[in-house]
Write a structure and sequence with these properties.
53% helix; alpha/beta; 18 helices; elongated
């Protein structure tokens, strides 16, 4: 719950964008005509009081049916006696329902708009601007509209429907990173420049160590001294050793040596960092493919996890990143970072809808505890600006 509050507070860019969009859509809304119902309600209420007045019309058919069954058993719960008891319950209802009536009046004041084709089109455009993608936006709005066309909806009801659909899409992919008995379990971490791989490795290492696992990190980005230094800082924070190689050395060779040492030491998890690379650079992607080939020569079943770290601020570009890295490195799961700095949180919904890859965790900050297992309901509530009960 604490992480949800942090997520909701920091995911304000996306939720506020949706709020603003819904406000614009609801500009043409009109107050709900429901307020008239409290005034008309007392009129029918008087009618039931007049109906019991001539009970002589009701009992005659009743006695003819009652003799067919034991009279004593049926007379106690007879429906004919219920109208006679309605006056006391009618008096108690106003006292017990004062708060409900007040809340009902407040809800009645909320502007409502008829769900029609024009409104659906505006909702689709809103979701597309939140980087949910055209296909996913169409699917979400179609599901929202099912059985509700022509009904008057408030902004709050639209948010609830939207959150429900988002959670439904993302629930199947909300999966923690699997842990195996195999030692060492090799975790290869890939992604483009600046996606947050290094900080994600540090946060994961800290969590696995806290869970009682022995962890070693291999600094596979051998081309940038700053990357190695940053990883060492995170290793110190997590209390995890970091294996390094001279600057400019072959990262595949480092991965081989790291696996050999992890085997000797009986380490549970070996996390291998890789250099950030653009998915459209064939030479860099081939280098990543080489690392995978070398790892598999050491252990044909490795890497046991290939985590693709995605930067939420890249928006729809994340889709092409997944496609490319999946072909070369056989990505097994996703981690989304920087959700606190973007209005494009909807891209995570598009990724879940299109690829169905497990989403292991999301990050919303730079602190070591700003990475949490992915919860679809909490994410949907935070994205749409709702609370969690």
């Amino acid at each position: 719950m604490a992480f949800f509050k942090k997520l909701k507070d920091r995911l304000f860019n996306s939720s506020s964008k949706l709020d603003e969009g819904l406000d614009a859509i609801m500009q043409d809304a009109e107050p709900d005509p429901a307020p008239a119902t409290p005034q008309t309600a007392p009129e029918p209420a008087k009618a039931p009081r007049e109906i019991p007045a001539p009970p002589s019309e009701v009992p005659p058919p009743a006695p003819t049916e009652i003799p067919t069954a034991p009279t004593e058993q049926l007379r106690a719960p007879t429906p004919l006696e219920i109208p006679i008891e309605t006056p006391p319950s009618a008096e108690a209802a106003p006292r017990a329902g004062l708060l409900g009536r007040l809340l009902g009046r407040e809800a009645a004041k909320a502007p409502r708009r008829v769900l029609d084709d024009d409104m659906l089109e505006q909702l689709e455009e809103l979701l597309i601007t939140a980087d949910m993608g055209v296909d996913t936006a169409l699917r979400v709005t179609a599901n929202m509209a099912e059985g509700r066309m022509g009904k008057r909806l408030s902004a709050q009801e639209i948010k609830e429907l939207l959150a429900r659909e988002i959670a439904r899409i993302m629930d199947p992919v909300a999966t923690p990173m699997p842990l195996y008995a195999k030692k060492p379990q090799v975790v290869l971490v890939v992604g483009v420049n600046g996606s947050g791989k290094t900080t994600t490795i540090g946060k994961l290492a800290s969590q696995f160590k806290a869970a009682g696992k022995s962890v070693v990190i291999a600094a596979g980005d051998t081309f940038r001294a700053a990357a190695v230094e940053q990883l060492q800082i995170w290793g110190d924070r997590a209390g995890v050793p970091v294996l390094t190689a001279p600057e400019g050395s072959d990262p595949a060779s480092l991965a081989w040596d790291a696996m050999a040492q992890a085997e000797r030491d009986g380490v549970d998890l070996l996390m291998i960092d890789t250099a950030g690379r653009l998915q459209n650079r064939a030479d860099l992607m081939e280098e990543l493919a080489k690392i995978v080939r070398v790892i598999r020569k050491k252990d044909p079943t490795a890497p046991h996890n290939t985590l693709l770290v995605l930067d939420a601020t890249t928006g729809q570009n994340a889709l092409s990143q997944v496609e490319t890295f999946q072909k070369l490195a056989d990505v097994s799961g996703l981690i989304m970072t920087k959700l606190d700095g973007t209005a494009r949180g909807g891209v995570l919904v598009a990724l879940a809808d299109k690829f169905g890859l497990p989403i292991h965790a999301i990050g919303v900050g730079e602190q070591i505890d700003d990475l949490s297992p992915f919860d679809p309901e909490e994410f949907a509530a935070a994205l749409t600006g709702l609370g969690v009960e």
